[in-house]
Design brief:
The protein has 295 residues and is an alpha+beta fold. The protein is 49% helix and 19% strand. Its cofactor is Mg(2+); Mn(2+).
Length: 295
């Protein structure tokens, strides 16, 4: 599937061209037109969104849509623009979840491995099902050097008590993952999803006497290697949360919603306050909500 934004001044030319190519034209709601023929569906929405899908998409893109309409070749020759330079990507999962660990993953990839990550479908884990996350995590491990820093709730709460600040705890975890992969690979080029002021992570690296070329980027998961790290971090978080649920024979939900508060109250009443710190992050406001509602 291919999706892009089209200048609507080109809509008439596109429509006429598709008619001449034998497409069947219809006009579903909110579209300017939808054009179909065997193996291909091309829909232009009133917003200017153009969506092309079907098994014939590659040929349609390369020989018509890109040269005649778009004037770019981002789809057909995407690999020519793909950054395959060796680098380390870091991302985390579990930061906003009351139950379960904080997991920070790192991935090192270069050259063909990066192209293979793209071909495998690696992208930001927030846009993926858990089934696909687990499937892709296996592929990432086959192709890349990886590391995962897992902070189970007891360890997390201990470290939070030391750092007194979530961003500094995250920075320590990121620096630890970076340290692990620099040691394994010798690579000094690092990209992370920026979560705090730049100096926070830089300071954590200095404490470990690590000198790297660090890029901190908002929406860092747009980088393929950071996206791979996001998948491993999410896989680790889900795996550890499932283990805790099985250990305590109750479902510990993700997030920090009302459902989570109810589960926390249930856990507290069944197992006590001391045990709650072994499954949950005690500095969350949710923790106080659970305590108050359990009385």
């Amino acid at each position: 599937m291919f999706v892009t934004k089209l200048n609507l001044e080109l809509a008439s030319k596109l429509l006429n061209d598709l008619k001449s190519q034998g497409f069947e034209i219809s006009k579903p709601q909110y579209t300017i037109f939808s054009a179909k023929k065997k193996g291909l569906n091309c829909t232009l929405y009133e917003s200017g969104k153009l969506m092309v899908q079907g098994k014939e998409t590659p040929q349609f893109m390369e020989f018509y849509l890109e040269p005649e309409i778009l004037g770019t070749f981002d789809y057909s020759y995407a690999d020519l623009q793909l950054d395959t330079s060796g680098r380390i990507g870091i991302d985390e999962a579990g930061k906003g979840d009351f139950f379960g660990p904080l997991c920070i993953a790192g991935v090192y990839a270069e050259g063909d491995a990066i192209s293979e990550l793209k071909s495998a479908g690696v992208r930001d884990s927030k846009n993926m099902t858990e089934k696909n996350i687990f499937k892709l995590a296996k592929e990432i491990r086959k192709r890349c050097e990886v590391t995962v820093v897992r902070m189970n709730p007891l360890k997390y709460n201990e470290l939070y008590g030391k750092f007194k600040n979530l961003n500094h705890l995250l920075a320590w975890g990121h620096a630890t993952a970076i340290e692990n992969l620099v040691s394994k690979t010798g690579c000094k080029n690092v990209i992370i999803d920026q979560f705090a002021a730049e100096q926070v992570v830089i300071g954590a690296l200095k404490k470990k006497k690590l000198e790297v070329n660090l890029t901190q980027r908002h929406r860092g998961e747009e980088d393929l290697v950071v996206a791979a790290a996001s998948i491993l971090a999410r896989e680790a978080f889900v795996t550890e949360l499932d283990k805790l649920s099985k250990q305590w024979e109750m479902t510990l939900p993700k997030g920090a919603s009302r459902q989570v508060v109810k589960a926390g109250v249930d856990f507290l009443r069944r197992f006590g306050k001391e045990k709650l710190s072994g499954v949950a992050k005690s500095h969350f406001k949710t923790y106080q909500d659970v305590i108050e509602e359990s009385i």
